[in-house]
Amino acid sequence: MHNLGRQWTCAAAPVIGMLSGCGCGRAMVRRALWECVEREEEKGVDMGVRIEKLCVSFGKMRVLHEMNMEIGDGEFVSLLGASGCGKSTLLKSIAGLLETESGRIEIDGKVMDNVAPEKRGTVIVFQDLRLFPHMTAGKNIAFPMSIKKVPKELQRKTVERLLAQVQLEGYGNRKIREMSGGQMQRVALARALAAKPGLLLLDEPFSGLDERLRTEMGELVRKLHRENGLTTVLVTHDKQEALKFSDRIALMSGGRILQYDTPQKIYRHPACREVAEYFGRMNYIREGDREIGVRPFDVRILPSGNDCTVEEIVFMGETAEVRLGTPQGAVYCLVMSRELDGMGIEAGMRVGMEIAF
């Protein structure tokens, strides 16, 4: 986004010349310029990210270890992992909020060495949102535009449009202190979009919400991502959130990426045991001279068989977990509760088992 100023000026030049020639005021010239800016931004910019051998340290402690990754233009990528794995450090490094030790970050094909955060075309939404409590929702959303001296009428129209996008129509004059947690999340997202980022960075913004609101906000972010043609990077420790909303997931541990892949591949074809077990229980079954990992949903119970013992059934609502005793040890199976009821299986019964590949 760094060269757009010159492009916008060129695009607006004929309009400005006409307005200047007919004696119109400076405000009209500025408004015409910003309307051209709006049109140019709607065309979109390539906001891919390339990270090469990135190292970040805090004092003597290395936090990121020679990290490499690419994020395609328009992708939704999740940085997933336990607390302390380095995912927020990576996000803040992309945003330019942390000093990097070595390596490089490219955004839109440009190396970001010595490029200030506000000139990177990125916006970051933090976990604590950082809204201005003394301002209304509308003024919070308008704040980035006020900094850029966007004409007031254009600010008003943009605020109305963004409030509608985040499903808060009519809330422009509501004080932040009068809003619920979910509503404040929406205001923070609208404010981020008002800055017209090419790259939206989200640092666990939904961690303080209950499960229903987390799902609701995740779906809203995915919708805004598509509608606004953004490249989005989400930091989360919620594996279901990452699996549901991401084009690709980078699973991190100890300042390194263990696997970077699509949700389907990272779940179905984990690169190592640590990746496999992060996404839930895994059975390890020997087959000849090799050991294979099998998800509980891929184990089928055969009521007519006789080579396993049903040791325990745990009801979990829509599903039930069944622990089978086998010659190789315990094997866990996940079955739809209704299907299990139809089998008439109880603890202590002998059954068969097969693996669905």
Question: What can you see in these coordinates?
Answer:
- It is a single chain.
- This protein is an alpha+beta fold.
- It is built from eleven helices and 17 strands.
- It has helices spanning 4-21, 26-42, 87-95, 137-147, 152-165, 181-194, 211-227, 239-245, 263-268, 273-278, 337-343; strands spanning 49-58, 61-71, 76-80, 102-107, 110-111, 122-125, 199-203, 231-236, 248-253, 256-261, 283-287, 290-294, 299-302, 308-315, 319-326, 329-336, 350-355.
- The strands form four sheets. It has a six-stranded mixed sheet, with helices on both faces. Strands 13-17-14-15-16 form a five-stranded antiparallel sheet.
- Helix 7 links the parallel strand 7 (199-203) and strand 8.
- The longest helix has 18 residues, at 4-21.
- It is globular.
- The model is unreliable at 1-21 and 39-44 (pLDDT under 50).
Task: Provide the descriptors you would attach to this structure in a database record.
357 residues, alpha+beta, five-stranded antiparallel sheet, 17 strands, disordered N terminus
Could you tell me the radius of gyration in angstroms?
Answer: 26 Å
Multimer state = single chain
- List the secondary-structure elements in sequence, H or E: HHEEEHEEEHHHEHEHEEHHEEEEEEHE
Binned strand content: 25-35%
Sheet with the most strands, sense and barrel status? 6 strands, mixed
What is the helix content? 25-40%
Helix and strand composition category: alpha+beta
Shape: globular
Q: What is the number of helices? A: 11
Count all strands and give the number: 17
> pLDDT below 50 for ≥5 consecutive residues: which ranges?
1-21, 39-44
Q: Measure the end-to-end span.
A: 47 Å
Lateral strand order in the biggest sheet: 6-7-8-3-9-10
The overall pLDDT, averaged over residues, is 87
